Amino acid sequence: LLLAALLLLREREASVADRLALRVEAGLLAGGGLAATAWAGHAAAVEGVGLPAALIDALHLLLAGAWLGALLPLAALLRAAARPEGADARPHAVLTVRAFSRLALACMALLVVTGVANAWFQVGSVPALVGTRYGWLLLAKLSLLLPVLGLARYNRRLLPRLAGDGDTIGRPAMGKLGRSIAAEAGLGLLIVLVTTGLSLSPPA
User: Fold this and answer.
1) How far are the Cα atoms of 12, 37, 101, 165, 188 from residue 184, in angstroms, in the given order?
2) b/e map of 40-66 (b: 16 or more CB within 10 Å)?
3) How confident is the model over 111-167, as pLDDT tens digits?
4) pTM of the model
5) Which of 41, 46, 104 is nearest to 71 (CA)?
6) How far apart are CA 80 and CA 48, in angstroms?
7) Distance (Å, rounded) from C-alpha 178 to C-alpha 190?
8) CB–CB of 86/170 below 8 Å?
9) Alpha-carbon distance 86 to 95, whole Å?
10) How far apart are CA 43 and CA 58, in angstroms?
11) Are 79 and 178 in contact (CB under 8 A)?
């Protein structure tokens, strides 16, 4: 609610300091709200290591938010840049995609590490992974992550083409990348739905 109020009631940013303050405040509210949900989940209830488990889960949530939250706006930017009248958007799209590519690579690597740690706390053994509802949902989540990684690899192969000739190389590559990122966002939302099932299931 605080974040929504900040964004809806903000005044016009008249300076660099105003723009920076808005982004810092919005980031703190969004990140704090997202990370706080770790203390309402299974991680905070792990006996003996509740605080470390909750901190790892909070980092996992923040990384997922940074990756998934950027996908649809990025796909929209690429869709606009791929249109014949989108020439003004193309330089911004190229710079944004390159910056996001570095961010997404770091987020995904850390997501795997924090995800393995979460699984260790919540599952703990192979029989618990393959013999419980929680374990099956976790395997479903992992199965959805594999095509996400495949799309990410495909997207990185398109990056060098974005700066090519606008009509023959750059625009078509932006269109393909926009559709691929939209598909990645769809898979990400499915992962969120499976994660919701995990949060409602007793840990393995």
Assistant:
1) 34, 24, 13, 26, 6
2) ebbbeebeeeeeebbbbbbbbbbbbbb
3) 999 999 988 888 888 888 888 898 999 999 999 999 999 998 999 888 888 877 667
4) 0.84
5) 104
6) 51
7) 19
8) no
9) 15
10) 9
11) yes
- d(CA 58, CA 55) in angstroms, rounded, equals 5
pLDDT reading at 102 higher than 70:
yes
Residue 169, pLDDT above cutoff 80: no
Residue type, 62: L
Identify the residue whose tokens are 């309402």. Answer: 40
At 5 the pLDDT is 93
Q: What is the CA radius of gyration of the chain?
A: 20
Positive or negative, the CA dihedral 200, 185, 59, 143 is positive
Contacts of 124 (CB under 8 A, 6+ apart): 204
